[in-house]
Design a protein that fits this description.
alpha/beta; Metallo-beta-lactamase, Chain A; 7-stranded mixed sheet; about 40% helix; about 15% strand
Length: about 325
């Protein structure tokens, strides 16, 4: 399968990473500058597709100067270590909370394995290679990454994960959203929240969506997948979907903590999203590889359990 690349904004080109061997699921983005950079890598299983795309775009072994990831989940950053070996001059940029996990990915891999299982881990992600610590630069909120002729500014966008940032391109105003707005495959009038364990937090997620709304120019770039040009609409829809899915689980948890029953509730929510979003039939299985209903259910249940623990502790402190 040959590389698939396409322009998404002035000086920004998408590279299809063929995540899970499938087209139009996850993108890496090349920024044209004196110091070329890619945003996102996909997993190790996508590394050859990313390299083929960079070759097609004229980026050789010694040309790539920066590898930037929105967060360290393996579908976004699992291939960083492997690509570092192919592009020895590239500096790796990641949220300060994620830096240690790129240098030593053992805990990251163990956490993902608990969610996906060993067989799916191998199929989707492959082996996760460590990144040499001396090549990693941490980005905190407001940090600017100078590329020469343009820059990326990181904005902390927790909610999906505490180690997630959105990235604003100085040349175009484009915002790379990671998973902060959820999942939106191209040509599908449907957005699915991404609420994985262990760090999903509704209030933080909505704050992050509002940050992106205020920062974005005319385009936001989803890691899953591609450009969206109606920024106001997509931000409104993201807030609506995150709230609806999280509230559905809260109501269900009043009578059950059985994961299969909670999954059934969210499956109904997903079907409702299709019914209200489009008259056309949509293949919901396509979303399972990106933001599976069970994984979302696990994350939302954990959110409500942690929230109730905090509220109980606060009430106890007031009574004491």
């Amino acid at each position: 399968m040959g590389p698939v690349v396409f322009d998404v904004a002035d000086g920004i080109t998408a590279i299809d990473t063929f995540y899970g061997g499938l087209e139009r699921y996850t993108a890496a983005y090349l920024l044209d500058a004196r110091e070329p950079a890619i945003v996102e890598t996909g997993p190790t299983t996508s590394a050859e597709h990313v390299k083929a795309g960079l070759d097609r775009l004229g980026i050789g072994r010694d040309d790539l100067a920066h590898i930037v990831v929105t967060h360290i989940h393996l579908d976004h950053a699992g291939g960083v270590g492997t690509l570092c070996g192919s592009y020895p001059k590239a500096t790796v940029w990641v949220h300060e909370r994620g830096a240690e996990h790129l240098a030593d990915p053992a805990r990251l891999v163990a956490s993902a394995t608990r969610v996906y299982g060993e067989e799916r881990m191998a199929t989707l992600f492959g082996t996760v290679e460590p990144v040499p610590a001396q090549r990693i630069q941490s980005v905190a909120d407001g940090r600017m990454i100078e590329l020469g002729g343009r820059a990326l500014t990181a904005t902390a966008t927790p909610g999906h994960a505490s180690h997630q940032v959105a990235l604003v391109d100085s040349a175009t105003g484009v915002v790379f959203t990671g998973d902060a707005l959820g999942i939106h495959p191209p040509d599908v009038p449907m957005l699915r929240p991404a609420t994985p364990p262990p760090e999903y937090d509704l209030e933080l997620a909505i704050e992050s969506i509002q940050k992106i709304r205020s920062l974005a120019g005319e385009v936001v770039l989803f890691s899953h997948f591609g450009p969206i040009r109606d920024v106001e609409r997509i931000c409104n829809l993201a807030v609506e979907r995150f709230r609806a899915w999280t509230e559905s689980v809260r109501v269900a948890m009043e009578t059950t903590h059985d994961i299969d029953e909670i999954v059934s509730v969210l499956e109904a929510e997903a079907r409702h999203d299709v019914e209200t979003g489009s008259e056309a039939a949509i293949d919901l299985d396509r979303f399972e590889i990106l933001a599976g209903v069970r994984m979302n259910a696990m994350g939302i249940m954990r959110y409500w359990d942690k929230r109730r623990e905090r509220e109980t502790a606060a009430a106890a402190d007031q009574d004491s």
